[in-house]
Amino acid sequence: LPTPQVEARTLAMLQGLLHQLHAACSHLAVGARAFPSSVQETAGHVRHGVEGIQASLASARSFQELSGLVLAQSREAVTRAQLSLEGLLEHVGQHTPLPWLVGPFAPALVEYPEDVPVDMSKWEGCVTVG
């Protein structure tokens, strides 16, 4: 059996990780405003799931204080959050325009629409791909 000090440190570490995860999810939810409503909703669900886990574990001082139901619900919420995040990453990878991802590293792609010819003479000395 773990000592009370080890349990307390483990719970504190878990709560710290959940705090960091919540901050990241909040940042994700704000950034998702540029995406369709389904993506925004998914980001919000992830954040709320993390908030629920935080609330469940916030007052616990030992693992004995946590019921099996709370642990099972927390595990399910983490699994749902992971699946949702994987879905968000897949959506971003499939639906985000290349110039948005590439940004300033490819100014010719960003500054000029595809149907406008680009004067490549000003890009002499640059390595081109494709």
From TrEMBL:
GO terms for biological process: lipid storage; positive regulation of triglyceride storage. It is found in: Lipid droplet. It comes from the Eukaryota. The keyword Membrane does not apply. One of its GO terms (cellular component) is cytosol. Keywords: Lipid droplet. This is PLIN3 protein. Its main location: other. SUPFAM superfamilies: Mannose-6-phosphate receptor binding protein 1 (Tip47), C-terminal domain (SSF109775). Belongs to the perilipin family.
